[in-house]
Specification:
Distance between the termini: 35 Å
Structural class: alpha/beta
Oligomer: single chain
Strand content: 15-25%
Order of helices and strands: EHEEHEHEHEHEEEHEH
Shape: elongated
Length: 258
């Protein structure tokens, strides 16, 4: 299991967290994990409750936004006002929200994380490895993604499914032919990346039954961007930096600050 690193003690002590969407399933788990790891949550907000900073209160140094994409502009304004880094966990992020994140990333670190599970990062690594090897194979496979979430999941296909397809395509292995989704079953989700050959199929599957790994991943990401340099990351890029420090997968920031 991924654990918090010593970098939470750099640059003046551990991070102070703010959580947007603290009443939701993921936001509530992030708050619980902070309590388990003795990290201070100094500010929380929901759609209906957005406390204004009070004089004398400690401001967060990192804000975890586990709400919806339409809340992101308000979260970005708050982060700008207090100088906090931002970790975005919402999956319904469109072009307008990405522009908001890119603008904020010129001032503070910002992470757009489609999925915060370290095993999902490993699944991405396997897809990228398969893509790199595919051009050497006698037969280049067709690829597809199948994702399942509960009926509570509103957007489809999920951001994780799109990210897996993007990992394959970014490696130059061709287009992913299909991204399919369905909404049923038990919490939390499944993501299957399938490589189809003439008479064989290889499937890389990630099955998630609890939000705990995502919450711990959020804390790990928060400790790394805490008081860091302005930059826009994807979650996969940030975990590359954390877990591959030897540079075997060079970080690919999508909007580094000048």
């Amino acid at each position: 299991m991924l654990t918090l690193t010593e970098r939470d003690h750099r640059s003046g002590g551990p991070p102070r967290l703010g959580v947007v969407g603290a009443a939701g399933r993921l936001g509530a788990r992030v708050v619980q994990e902070c309590d388990r790891h003795d990290l201070a949550v100094v500010w929380t907000a929901t759609r209906t409750s957005w406390p204004a900073p009070q004089e004398g209160d400690a401001a967060p140094t990192v804000v975890v936004d586990a709400s919806r994409g339409d809340i992101l502009p308000r979260t970005a304004d708050y982060c700008r006002s207090v100088g906090a880094a931002l970790l975005v966990c919402a999956s319904d992020i469109g072009p307008a929200q990405r522009r908001v994140a890119a603008e904020l990333a010129t001032e503070v670190p910002v992470v757009l994380a489609a999925n915060l599970s370290i095993v999902n990062w490993l699944q991405h690594q396997l897809v990228r490895t398969a893509a790199a090897l595919s051009t050497r194979l006698p037969e280049v496979p067709d690829t597809s993604v199948l994702e399942r979430h509960t009926t509570a999941k509103r957007d489809r296909p999920s951001a994780t499914a799109r990210s897996l397809a993007g990992a394959w395509e970014a490696a130059g292995a061709g287009l992913t032919h299909e991204i399919a989704s369905y909404r049923a079953g038990l919490p939390v989700s499944e993501h299957q990346f399938a490589l189809g050959f003439a008479h064989e199929t290889l499937t890389i599957t990630h099955d998630v039954r609890d939000l705990g790994p995502a919450a711990l991943g959020a804390l790990t990401a928060a400790t790394w961007i805490h008081r860091g340099a302005p930059r826009l990351w994807t979650g996969t890029e940030l975990f590359d930096e954390i877990l591959l420090p030897d540079g075997s997968a060079a970080p690919r920031g999508i909007c580094p600050a000048k």
